[in-house]
Amino acid sequence: MSKFTKEYIITMEDIVREGDPILREKTKEVSIPPTEEDKEELQCMLQYLKNSQDPILSKKYQLRAGVGLSANQIGLNKRMFASYMRQENGEALEYMLINPKIISHSTAMTYIPESEGCLSIDRSIVGYVPRYRRITVRAYNIHGEEVKIKLKDYEAIVFQHEIDHLNGILFYDHINSKNPFELPANVDITPLY
Ligand SMILES: [Zn+2]
């Protein structure tokens, strides 16, 4: 068992930061069904996101708020991530996914006007990160069952950011290096809001 059991509380000390080579590696596929260790790690990762969005716990443990966390961001070379996103209606969407893959996407793209943030990156980065507006992802859930998930807008952006992590890609790799506010040409791209 790794230290990331379901009782373990991840803090910022556990989060791997920019410069660590594991963030630049393509992570390894996880065997299905997942082991008890894989499952506990995913539950631990999801709990970090919940804690980080809780006003009392985030203060107590000094957590930076996050909506997605990939396994390599806590030093595990495994293709899996957790995501926890509150929706406008107050309900939360939570995912613990294994071997996720984008199987189709829209041609239309979007971007967050303030750029993206990342728990592994401590400096502020400006620029537009073009993302597909809609994606369909195939993955396995924590029970080892195949799932197909359709996402759009903010949720689609979060998933693309996390799947990028599993391929060793960081969000700023997508920013135009000559002009960070230049958008790709000949593409239907509009801001998220
Ligand atoms: Zn990130």
From TrEMBL:
UniProt entry keywords in alphabetical sequence: Hydrolase, Iron, Metal-binding, Protein biosynthesis
Protein purpose: Removes the formyl group from the N-terminal Met of newly synthesized proteins. Requires at least a dipeptide for an efficient rate of reaction. N-terminal L-methionine is a prerequisite for activity but the enzyme has broad specificity at other positions.
Catalysed reactions, semicolon-separated: N-terminal N-formyl-L-methionyl-[peptide] + H2O = N-terminal L-methionyl-[peptide] + formate
Protein biosynthesis is among the record's keywords: yes
Annotated GO biological process: translation
E.C. number(s) listed in UniProt: 3.5.1.88
SUPFAM superfamilies, per database record: Peptide deformylase
Record gene name: def
Descriptive protein name: Peptide deformylase
Organism lineage string: Bacteria, Bacillati, Bacillota, Bacilli, Bacillales
GO MF, one example: peptide deformylase activity
InterPro entries: Peptide_deformylase (IPR023635), Peptide_deformylase_sf (IPR036821)
Organism listed in the record: Niallia circulans
Enzyme class at the top of the EC tree: hydrolase
Stated family: Belongs to the polypeptide deformylase family.
Cofactor(s) of this protein: Fe(2+)
Keyword Hydrolase: yes
Pfam families: Pep_deformylase
Free-text cofactor note: Binds 1 Fe(2+) ion.
Family annotation (HAMAP family): Pep_deformylase
Active site per database record: 162
